[in-house]
Each structure stands twice: as C-alpha cells, then as structure tokens.
Amino acid sequence: MPLKNRVTPFGEIVALAGRGTLTGNRGVLVDDERRMVRRWQTKRWIACRLSYKGIRRKVMQPHVWTELFFLDEAAALSAGHRPCAECRRDDYRRFRNLWERHVCSPAGADEMDAVLHRQRVDARGKRTYRDDVSSLPDGTYVAVDGKAWLVLGACIVEWSDGGYSTHRPRPPGGVDVLTPPAIVTILRAGYAPEIHPSARAR
Q1: Rounded CA gap, 34 and 94, in Å?
Q2: How far apart are CA 97 and CA 127, in angstroms?
Q3: Is residue 182 part of a domain?
Q4: Could you state, in chain order, the average pLDDT of each consecutive group of 10 residues for the chain (202 residues)?
Q5: Which of 148, 150, 174, 191 is close enough to 9 for a disulfide, judged by CB 3.0 to 4.6 Å?
C-alpha cells in the first residue's frame, strides 16, 4: 500500500503509487506511529534531489523531517515549494537571483519563504487566483474541471502521479492558477523548471 507522502499540484499530501523525480519537506509531519498529523510544521517548504552525497534515509520516520515526493519540479513549485539551497544550490541561486530582480529584494530563504507561505495557503487550504491562461508562462499549473493541468506551449497537460496524460489546447479566458504568484513571476522571468518527460510525449 502506498505511503501518504505524495504531493499533488494542489499542495495536498496523498497516498499514490507514483514516486516522482524530486523529494522535499515541510518539517516533521508524522507522529510516533508514522501517521500524517499535520500539513506542515515550518514555512520552509523545499524541493530536493532524490539522491545527494550518498545519503540514505528510512522514509517517514518520527522526529525527523518527513520525506515528500513530487512528479517533477513544476508540480513542486505549484504546491508552493522552492529549490533547496543545499542539494540544488545552482537552481536555488537562479531562483533567488530572479526573485531579487523581479519580486523583491533582499531575497534570503526566510524572506522568500514568508512571501510564499502567504501565497500558498489560507485557512481553507490551497490559495489560488484568477488569470488569463494565454498570459501564463510554461511551467505554471492551473485548475480546470477540478483537475491540475500544466501549462506548456499552446497546450495544457493533465497531471497524474505517474506522469502527464491528456493534452488539450489552452482554454480561452480566465482560469484558477495553482502556482503561487511570486513563482509565476519567476517562471515568466526565465526560470525553467524540470518537467517530467511524459509532458512532451504525444
């Protein structure tokens, strides 16, 4: 049975079979019986490499940060995670530099995490906003018919835990945007997230 440690583009933590291409964390989320008891412990939501310096961890152990998994970086960004400053140093620097130029300065980890936390969740859960889909950069996630879709070229592509499936043209007009606005600004400024190869398969 899959563990409850997979993150959707809506930011939900669910039990699904697919493992994904990135891991990450939001702090300690499980109790002594490895039951998920909170959605986050800290504002520092990061996305990390699956492998780093040969470190091996036993997944979902109590009292240490809880491993979460994402289909790809675009999905992690949609959920409100940013690149890790340790295992993804180059990505973090690119992200931070674009933030300083296009969002606000200074842009240390604490400053970025504070802004992102206000933009990703509210008392009801995932925070979204409306925008015209034609103006959104590649790598942004939108909600259409209750499902998460990746914006890519002239299309939107449906997310699943195993990869991307259905392609359809960008719909006309406004949509609910899942990716936090500061991250959409970073994408528009040229940050290119890692995208699962199934997104470009027809």
Answers
A1: 35
A2: 25
A3: no
A4: 92 91 95 93 95 77 93 98 96 97 92 96 90 97 97 97 95 96 98 95 70
A5: 148
